[in-house]
């Protein structure tokens, strides 16, 4: 789904095996290295929990990509390292789902999109 960028590497930490065991009340580090195919003044992250083919918005503390390690404006052909946190709230249900993480440019096109299977646990 990455239209305007090419993912080089995705790192979720700590997550030694998949599905990632996400413990309630813990934050996980997200690091994505990608190359941009376009120029964009800004970028915005959208995170979802995907269950039964339905995307449920997953709030993150900082959706602005320019405040998450990306030097803006984004230049065509440059590599960027996007860093963020995935907080797992204690009130989340204990379930298996797919986390879908998107970063969109000014035109709402995807710089990157990736999915990872997770299991939320106490």
TrEMBL record:
SMART domains: ML
Chief place where the protein resides: secreted
Record carries keyword Ion transport: no
CDD domains according to UniProt: Npc2_like (cd00916)
Similarity remark: Belongs to the NPC2 family.
Signal peptide feature range: none
Source organism: Formicarius rufipectus
Intracellular or extracellular location(s): Secreted
Molecular-function GO terms, alphabetical: cholesterol binding
Residues in MD-2-related lipid-recognition domain copies: 4-118
Protein name: NPC intracellular cholesterol transporter 2
Protein keywords: Disulfide bond, Secreted, Signal
GO cellular component entries: extracellular region
Record InterPro entries: Ig_E-set, ML_dom, ML_Npc2-like, NPC2-like
SUPFAM superfamilies xrefs: E set domains (SSF81296)
Claim: Cell membrane is one of the keywords in the record: no
Pfam families associated with the record: E1_DerP2_DerF2
Lineage: Eukaryota, Metazoa, Chordata, Craniata, Vertebrata
Swiss-Prot/TrEMBL GO biological process terms: cholesterol efflux; intracellular cholesterol transport
